[in-house]
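>> received
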Amino acid sequence: MAKGTAAAAAHWGPGETGALEILELLAAQAPLDDLDEVLLRAHQLGAPPEELARLHRAGHLGRTVHGLLTRRRRREADLAALLDAARELTSSCDVDGVVKTVAHRTRQLLNVDMAFVALLTSGSGDSVIRASSGATTSLHIGLRLTGEHGIGAKVRSTGAPFWTTDYATETAIDHDPDLDEAIAKEGIRSVLALPLHHDSGTVGVLYAAHREARRFGPDEAALMGSLADLAAVAVDKAQWLELYNAEVAKLEEHSALAMETIETERWLEAARDHIIGFALSGQGLAGLAVEVGVLLDGEVVVRDYRGRTVAGREDAWPTPPPPAPTSRTPVLLEGGIWQAAVWAGTTWLGHILVRPRATLSPEGERMLGYAGQAVALAFRVRAGAGPSGAVGVDSNCA
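>> returned
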């Protein structure tokens, strides 16, 4: 007899009814063995048959009440654990966090050897294990399961839980060879599977597995069904949240690129206005060549249409190519030298060449094209024709 109930029953003596004693034991939540001791003591003290009959009837009723109270306490504990799980699932904002919570809670609530969650990866029902709880090596995260076979296909097609006390010999399912192999390696016998289903469809399957033969009762299936429903909603929410965050990240990336492009365009516009203003200021081709060299971080040489150097230092430069009109788009020559043609309308005036200290960026190429326009203006200013006047080629390059 438990310590807390021995004193409560000690005053019941021979000839006294034990029915009230049984009630007192029930009120004290005593174990069933204490109820049996009341009956045993009555027999030992020689209680009359009528008294024994009443005691046995009271003991039977006491056992029934004890079972009801035990199931109620267990149900209350399960509901409390389910509420805790709901709080955890609500606070989880990513899919991995949700499925880890579900696997852990499943193993805790059912007291099974392991639990794992597989989420669908295709419309055909293929899935991958995203979380597991319990000592397992074969049923690991990342294991892919086919959607056409196995216990997962069974619960997805019926939308209802399915359990078996001996998975290896179960004939009600179309076995998946890969899953069968993993389950055999783990020594698993009993399996309970439930669909993670909500209004918009099934997102995966929840599995509970045990290494000994075990029958999962309707109460356990119902409890896990409630957990599976909560999990399905949480997984769906987390998947949408991940998709939303990915879209936001893309938008932020595009926004950053757009801002970077805008800043680059502003810099190019300011630099173009600067060198064109410099060309119109009358400070000469030499000063313009130096200014362009600063902007492009390199050495600059300007040659006229005859191939003569009119600005910049040509020391240690390779032999220039024969003078000839080229495209208005800058081109890369041998030795890492960039060349941009200088045109005044349809008249070719020469070239500007740049040897940058570092690789010329696309923005640098555009800046070199603007430099060609500025050099054309400088040629005009040098010829005394003004920025919009005609250009005499010979006089420009004389």
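>> The chain has eleven helices and eleven strands.
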